[in-house]
Design goal:
Layout lengths: L21 H21 L6 H8 L3 H7 L3 H30 L3 H30 L3 H23 L11 H19 L14 H17 L2
Helix pairs in contact: 1-2, 1-4, 4-5, 4-6, 5-6, 5-8, 6-7, 7-8
């Protein structure tokens, strides 16, 4: 059975005044959902609060009641995106540890499933990484999320510790395997780099060969 997840949740970025009633809450959700849609459509933060007002059917006054400005709205969208990614990672790990019968099966399924999780979240994760370069709050939360992902994945790999060569090095090997997997998938998805620099190798071949390398590394004496 997997260990209980002890990673601390990401601290949310709250709007300036939390909505108390259902109608106000629905209005806030439309603001954030509309900003998210615009960011996904354009691949950047180049939208105006007037566009959020018009498309989301909320007044400019309502937006400023909840957020100090556009930066605060963008930040709230990106924090929610990081929280969603962490939830998806946790659900993936819980399912894999429960169903995988051995290390090889776990690693193969882990890479396949994690690749899909990252692919689905890549557009907003990419924007969060870009904003982290000049936004200390996003940078701090992103580092926390990354540390939590390392810890959770390491615990999952160590569930198969009996198959990992070198008992004294099981945790180090598990962490190293995670970093290799994430770095490879992230580069392929252009996370933290431009799309021009990403590899155009076949996605399925990449995942298969990455699994083979990690399994051999983990099992080696």
């Amino acid at each position: 059975m997997p260990e209980e997840n002890t990673a601390s949740p990401l601290s949310p970025v709250s709007p300036s005044r939390a909505p108390l009633q259902g109608r106000s809450k629905a209005s806030l959700e439309r603001m954030q959902a509309t900003a998210r849609e615009l960011m996904l459509e354009r691949g950047n933060e180049d939208f105006t609060l007037q566009e959020v007002s018009s498309r989301g059917q909320v007044s400019i006054g309502s937006i400023y009641l909840r957020f100090e400005g556009k930066d605060a709205l963008v930040r709230a969208v990106l924090v929610q995106a990081m929280q969603d990614l962490r939830s998806a990672e946790d659900a993936m790990l819980e399912s894999l540890v429960r169903t995988a019968g051995n290390l090889g099966e776990f690693v193969e399924n882990y890479i396949a499933d994690y690749a899909e999780v990252l692919r689905l979240h890549a557009p907003l994760l990419r924007l969060a990484m870009l904003r982290a370069e000049q936004d200390p709050q996003i940078s701090s939360l992103g580092k926390q999320a990354a540390d939590d992902a390392v810890a959770a994945s390491t615990r999952a790999f160590i569930e198969y510790g009996a198959e990992i060569g070198g008992d004294d090095e099981a945790e180090m090997r598990a962490q190293s395997a995670y970093h290799i997997i994430f770095a490879t998938l992230a580069r392929r998805l252009s996370l933290g780099s431009t799309s021009e620099s990403s590899s155009h190798s076949d996605w399925d071949i990449l995942k298969r060969e990455l699994a083979r390398m990690c399994i051999a590394y983990l099992r080696s004496a």
